[in-house]
């Protein structure tokens, strides 16, 4: 649907809704009086208020509440919240519990990226010229049942492995303040490993599909618009990690990587609120604008502890160069991350079930502050909490991937609009192109407008 109105500059139109993203949003295009594109911007159309909802709540309950911030990233919000409260209380999480948390999150990462491929990104690649009414998972299944079946089979295997390890398929409550609610026994670990081993071939075939479609797309789409600014991710020893210990940034234009401690990173974040939507974009001083998420992690590169993912990543970079700076590389990046998460989880499970069985450490709540920074499927995620003397939350702040991506997304969207929109009457092809540009940032509106 197109909505046309007058603006201070000239006329403006809104393309609503942006489909195949998480949450409700539209694209607003502003024109000069000469009907030339002045600016295009992504607008989130909802707000959750979940930060305020947890104020006054007992700290130990907060991670379970924040797990509902969004569907895809819920477990990562749950973990970030637990880690922020642990940071405030000085809790030493048992090593076995940390390992179990990490295993669950690698599996959640793999599952989430596969879902994103199937439901949000693949229709643009598999059915590029089709009408919007059939550009969805049902339309893909009608023309390529085998590919959808392979991806669905991988997803089922990972979901079953998660169920074996966490004993709860929906919003697993395994992650709690101080550790986890329970550790799997060796039988559960063996069953999970068997399930993951069984989906190896389908994962590799899905990577080949992503490569083939990316190759075709790079020939079909002729655009001079590339990603500019910086890519950013959490790292450990210079490699991307869900539970890293530093932030790594590098320019899309090429150049040396820069790293910073989490405290330095949080101190460098600046809010850039805008009056036209609920999201509050975030800028990182010295690295503006920045992009977080799959492309950022793939550009930093995987390590030798995941040789399969590293080999596949090297293949992709050999074909298209480094860094990957075009939107159509997202499909390959998602497929790479599915393999990466799968391989990371297998490595941790291969160590066997914990012998010590120490699942959780106690937390002494007092007036204090804490924070946590980790990488979620959408990118860098940070939580900061302040506790009162009664152990209740006095303030809470979430910094989400969409907030970090907001400035670069709107800059990129404006340049794409300038290239594709030829006047106030926006064609279906141009509208589809703009929606696809938004999807290349994999925006999660509930996370961004918490």
UniProtKB/TrEMBL annotation:
Which cofactor does the UniProt annotation name? Fe cation; Ni(2+)
Query: In which residues is Fe cation bound?
Result: 73, 447
> Gene3D superfamilies, per this entry?
Cytochrome-c3 Hydrogenase, chain B
**InterPro entries (alphabetical):** Ni-dep_hyd_lsu, NiFe-Hase_large
For the ligand (Ni(2+)), the binding residues are: 70, 73, 444
Record bears the keyword Cell division: no
List the molecular function annotations (GO) for this entry: nickel cation binding
Keyword Transferase listed = no
Keyword list, A-Z? Iron, Magnesium, Metal-binding, Nickel
- Where, by residue number, does Mg(2+) bind? 51, 398, 450
User: PANTHER family from the entry?
Assistant: COENZYME F420 HYDROGENASE SUBUNIT ALPHA (PTHR43600:SF1), COENZYME F420 HYDROGENASE, SUBUNIT ALPHA (PTHR43600)
- Name used for this protein in its record: Uncharacterized protein
């Amino acid at each position: 649907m197109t909505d046309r109105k007058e603006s201070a500059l000239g006329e403006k139109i809104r393309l609503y809704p942006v489909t195949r993203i998480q949450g409700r949003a539209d694209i607003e295009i502003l024109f000069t009086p000469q009907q030339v594109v002045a600016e295009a911007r992504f607008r989130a159309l909802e707000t959750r208020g979940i930060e305020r909802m947890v104020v006054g709540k007992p700290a130990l309950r907060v991670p379970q509440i924040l797990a509902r911030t969004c569907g895809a990233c819920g477990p990562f919000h749950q973990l970030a919240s637990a880690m922020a409260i642990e940071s405030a209380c000085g809790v030493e999480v048992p090593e076995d519990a940390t390992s179990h948390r990490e295993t669950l999150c690698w599996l959640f990462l793999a599952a989430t990226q596969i879902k994103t491929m199937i439901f949000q990104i693949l229709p643009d690649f598999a059915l590029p010229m089709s009408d919007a009414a059939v550009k969805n998972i049902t339309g893909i299944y009608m023309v390529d049942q085998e590919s959808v079946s392979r991806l669905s089979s991988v997803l089922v295997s990972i979901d079953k492995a998660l169920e074996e390890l966490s004993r709860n398929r929906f919003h697993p409550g395994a992650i709690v303040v101080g550790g986890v609610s329970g550790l799997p026994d060796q039988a559960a670990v063996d069953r999970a490993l068997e399930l993951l081993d069984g989906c190896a071939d389908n994962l590799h075939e899905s990577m080949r599909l992503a490569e083939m479609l990316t190759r075709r797309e790079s020939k079909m789409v002729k655009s001079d618009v590339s990603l500019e600014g910086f890519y950013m991710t959490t790292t450990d020893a210079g490699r991307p990690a869900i539970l890293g210990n530093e932030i790594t940034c590098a320019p899309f234009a090429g150049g040396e990587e820069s790293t910073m401690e989490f405290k330095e990173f949080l101190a460098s974040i600046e809010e850039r609120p805008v009056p036209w939507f609920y999201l509050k974009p975030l800028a990182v001083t010295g690295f503006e604008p920045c992009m977080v998420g799959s492309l950022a992690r793939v550009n930093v590169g995987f390590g030798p502890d995941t040789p399969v993912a590293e080999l596949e990543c090297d293949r992709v970079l050999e074909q298209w160069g480094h860094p990957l700076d075009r939107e159509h590389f997202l499909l390959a990046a998602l497929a790479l991350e599915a393999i990466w998460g799968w391989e990371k989880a297998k490595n941790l499970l291969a160590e066997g079930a914990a012998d010590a069985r120490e699942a959780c450490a106690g937390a002494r709540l007092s007036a204090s502050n804490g924070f946590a920074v980790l990488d979620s499927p959408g990118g860098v995620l940070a939580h900061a909490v302040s506790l009162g003397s009664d152990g209740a939350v006095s303030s809470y702040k979430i910094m989400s991937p969409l907030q970090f991506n907001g400035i670069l997304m709107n800059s990129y969207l404006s340049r794409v609009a300038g290239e594709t929109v030829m006047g106030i009457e926006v064609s279906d092809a141009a509208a589809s192109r703009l929606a696809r540009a938004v999807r290349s940032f994999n925006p999660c509106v509930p996370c961004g407008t918490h």
